[in-house]
């Protein structure tokens, strides 16, 4: 799959425009309230600037008390109104912020769930997803995804105030304006250089962080607790953790040194800026070039002007930092995601067992030196039950993932009733398969919901119960007070239950039954089962597979006997093919493996020696 060709760093403006667009789409109320806050803020700044000068002018200008009270009262009333409205907008925005954050987080989850499995599995994609996720984390009380539009609005408001105050100050000296603006520019450049440095070294941090989390998770994982104690792994884990922690600390120290240098330059520039401006004003006042009210107005304007510059820089600064995170979010969201050409309809193939053809299919994992599967040509006839066997690492699971559309062949074509798999929409294609994978994943839903993969009211309860019982969970259901409404996972649901490995595997079988897809795939489903349960699964499989095309993977060769055909994979290619009897008669690898497995059950066998 082609990687994104866009630059990882997106401009601040681009991210701000993107954020406003997302806001308009997800929470339009936030956008309009935020926009209304801008003119209000400018009005308030103007009123606050005028107030002291107005008081001085009324007092020193010989106005009547009534005139002064009316003028000052009107301006005060306007100020209070603007403050009230501004705070009202702020409250609404704060409430809307979590909605906006929730909207973007759900977009991220949707993208992750819909993404092509092969792309999602890559380490690079997982790192990108992690970084995108961090954009919605609360950091120092702020969420980067919300910070960009918030701070951009702050920047616009302060820029308008800056223009207003600048126009007032330019009446004294355009030079003053140039001095104040130059100082702001130097400040901005410092901030920009720091942010770029942080962004460039961030990949290193993510890598260290990911490894730190992994080691820490494994050290605390209860499943690993036995191995840690018995194999004395604690020292090993502790040293690995310390080493990674040292690397992380060194990274932070390098960053902090840069930050400190930037702050020192910043401080020096502020000192020069304010010192110069106030000196000029004092000189003019002493020379009598300014009236008292003008002095008050310009003095307030200079300090206001400096505040706006400070606010703009701080908004810019915060926006830059947050913008890097928004870039991460966007980069993940814009990862290319092909969804098949979509002209074929899976519905046409759902009502019958389809024929599946692997036509010279090869597959190589990203970065691998060799193909894991090479030039596989295989046809699963409509309604045929095929067993796939082979040693560990032969490529069986990889073949299943290709068949189910989780991977795309590196070369060659997989066809369903003659239609290339790439011509289906991905979701549509997935509807054709009901796989039961080796690894079992159950979440904290009820048994019925898990079997149906649906939320409560959408579950066909009769069908769910039938499937759970058919998968061998009947006795379990009868023993549970809440039957199939019992929730899994004790940690989340206090009255939940934990299933044994075998029971969980049966639950996965029930899920495949409920889906009732025309192609059934079982990838080593009996690994966790006791002999009785294993036998039940074979019986169950035989019943489930009736009328469907099916692929069955098992290391227990005896279990493949009820399949129509057995295919043996070796080194990524098909080494042998036939029925159990013909393969035994051929005396090849299948026969050898079968003999090794079955000899332990021969009376008198003692590990290679007959008694
Ligand atoms: N995600 C992956 N990335 C890179 N290589 C992989 C990945 N998954 C599997 N492999 C490699 O591909 C080869 C085939 O793996 P696969 O899981 O398909 O074998 P298998 O026949 O199902 O093995 P087993 O019987 O142990 O389940 C192995 O060498 C494995 O290391």
From TrEMBL:
Localisation: Cell membrane
Predominant subcellular localization, coarse grouping: membrane
GO MF annotations, alphabetized: ATP binding
Membrane topology: Multi-pass membrane protein
InterPro entries on file: AAA+_ATPase, ABC1_TM_dom, ABC1_TM_sf, ABC_transporter-like_ATP-bd, ABC_transporter-like_CS, P-loop_NTPase, Type_1_exporter
Transmembrane regions listed in the UniProt entry: 29-46, 66-85
Domain (ABC transporter): residue spans on this chain: 356-596
UniProt-listed PROSITE patterns: ABC_TM1F, ABC_TRANSPORTER_1, ABC_TRANSPORTER_2
Any Pfam family hit: ABC_tran
Protein name in UniProt: ATP-binding cassette domain-containing protein
Species name: Faecousia intestinalis
